[in-house]
Amino acid sequence: MFKQIPCVLALAVAAHIPLAAHAAQQKNLDVLGTWTLTRVLDSAEITAMDDQEAARLVGRTLVIRPDKIVMVGEDCDQADFERHREPAAKYVRENYHAPVGRLGLPDSVTVVNLGCTEALLKGSGRIVVFWDGFFYDATRQPGAGKNGAHPVK
Questions:
Q1: So which residues are the signal peptide here (predicted)?
Q2: Does 150 reside within a domain?
């Protein structure tokens, strides 16, 4: 009987791994998918590009899949999708050195780590994304599915 315990334990662990991955994916349905950057909302004090360069990214995509994130054509580091809830004004001021006024965020915002950036949850199908010193409003593409199946622009 004791010889069977390691086999049973191994099967239980193996069965749990796909369930954990599925649970993580279910938890992130609000961010998974293909998103279009619809407009520049504001910038931080220090940016990596100018206003015209930032404006050229409007219409580009952010693809968020459980296994891969691509922001405007660049592969991101592996995301852990860690979430935390923060007072929006304080979080944006302390982490991005920017005012929150033009971002249209709720007073308390959920922040999701995407590896190379963060998604600030704005509402159903809308997020704010920070890239190279600029904040972008992004909307989920209809019909893209929650797995980011659309190609990257």
A1: 1-23
A2: no
Sign of CA dihedral 140, 142, 147, 150: negative
Phi-psi region of 52 (alpha: psi -120 to 50; beta: other; left: phi over 0): alpha
Strands 118-123 and 33-43 come out as unpaired
Q: What is the mean pLDDT of residues 77-81?
A: 90
Burial class (CB within 10 angstroms; exposed 0-12, middle 13-18, buried 19+) of 73:
exposed
Q: Within this chain, do residues 53 and 108 fall inside the same structural domain, yes or no? A: yes
Separation between Cα atoms, residue 138 and residue 120, nearest integer Å:
10
Q: How far is CA 20 from CA 8, 15, 27, 112, in A?
A: 18, 9, 10, 18
Prediction pTM value: 0.78
In a domain, 135, yes or no: yes
Residue 19: predicted pLDDT: 44
